[in-house]
Recover the amino acids of this structure.
């Protein structure tokens, strides 16, 4: 059996497939952009200044990758599926595909960095608080994008089908390993730390207990992000397998597999902001504070009283000018 659904090369996508993905891309684009902009602003413009930590900066870096999904991938998807629905030739397909892989790779590397962050924060808390500065986190975030660009450049050597197949396998395998490591090792260390503190008393023990509780809640949020990632990428990986290896599938079904695996990846970028808002009260409080500030600024705009007619306003203007 040849690698890839070669029997469907050159077969146009059915109209209902193109229109479905076109409609979903329009809807997902709006929610993905709004949700991730709010997450980024919550970290950067937070009035309470309680979201300037290494973990939240890494979350903001993941939100940037998700934002680019809505800002670049979705408009390109709309453009491509619009042309497909009209029976026109597909242009800039390489741009859409490389953007897709760049954002996915950046998300995967961001999750890997978050894993290292959680491990160091829990196993070496004193060193973590002394050495992991915001500047170093920003440099690490920049490095994830540089590495993502370098990895994505392999697309031009092996092509879309081979790269998608390799990426899906690496993404799922590495995320499963990270999930197991975090769940087994990190939570085991947290449990041991809490047991050691249970026999201690005093102010220092209480402060350390609060610190461990906080790290546990943050780690649970990170675990939720991992679960959502797997819930979206595992079915997407299955779709890629079927798309590439099902030589007996109809071309219409192959096109559905192609679009469904893309939609599942986009859904992950849309859900992530909801995870932060549900699991982290600081994000909710920051977003509400920004809305309140926006509403207050809007209400403070000076407007002329409604009962003043145009002649009264003109008369007052003349009086002020002559005096």
């Amino acid at each position: 059996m040849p690698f890839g659904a070669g029997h469907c090369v050159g077969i146009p996508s059915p109209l209902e497939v193109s229109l479905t993905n076109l409609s979903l891309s329009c809807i997902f684009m709006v929610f993905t952009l709004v949700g991730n902009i709010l997450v980024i602003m919550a970290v950067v413009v937070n009035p309470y200044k309680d979201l300037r930590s290494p973990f939240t900066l890494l979350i903001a870096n993941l939100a940037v990758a998700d934002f680019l999904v809505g800002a670049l991938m979705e408009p390109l998807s709309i453009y491509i599926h619009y042309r497909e629905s009209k029976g026109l030739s597909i242009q800039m397909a390489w741009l859409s595909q490389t953007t897709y892989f760049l954002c996915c790779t950046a998300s995967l590397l961001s999750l890997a960095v978050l894993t290292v962050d959680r491990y160091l924060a829990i196993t070496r808390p004193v060193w973590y608080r002394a050495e992991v500065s915001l500047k170093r986190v920003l440099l690490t975030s920049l490095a994830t994008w540089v590495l993502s660009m370098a990895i994505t450049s392999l697309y031009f050597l092996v092509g879309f089908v081979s790269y998608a197949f390799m990426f899906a396998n690496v993404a799922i395998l590495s995320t499963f390993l990270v999930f197991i490591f975090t769940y087994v090792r990190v939570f085991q260390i947290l449990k041991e730390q809490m047991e050691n503190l249970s026999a201690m008393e005093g102010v220092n023990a209480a402060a350390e207990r609060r610190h461990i509780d906080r790290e546990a809640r943050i780690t649970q949020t990170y675990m939720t992000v991992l679960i959502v990632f797997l819930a979206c990428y595992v079915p997407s990986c299955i779709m890629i397998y079927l798309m590439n290896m099902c030589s007996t599938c109809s071309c219409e079904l192959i096109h559905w597999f192609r679009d469904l695996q893309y939609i599942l990846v986009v859904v992950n970028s849309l859900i992530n902001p909801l995870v932060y808002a549900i699991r982290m009260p600081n994000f909710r409080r920051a977003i509400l504070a920004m809305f309140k500030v926006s509403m207050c600024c809007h209400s403070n705009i000076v407007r002329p009283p409604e009962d003043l007619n145009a002649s009264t306003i003109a008369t007052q203007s003349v009086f002020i000018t002559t005096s």
About this structure: The chain is about 80% helix and 0% strand. Residues 304-323 have pLDDT under 50 and may be disordered.
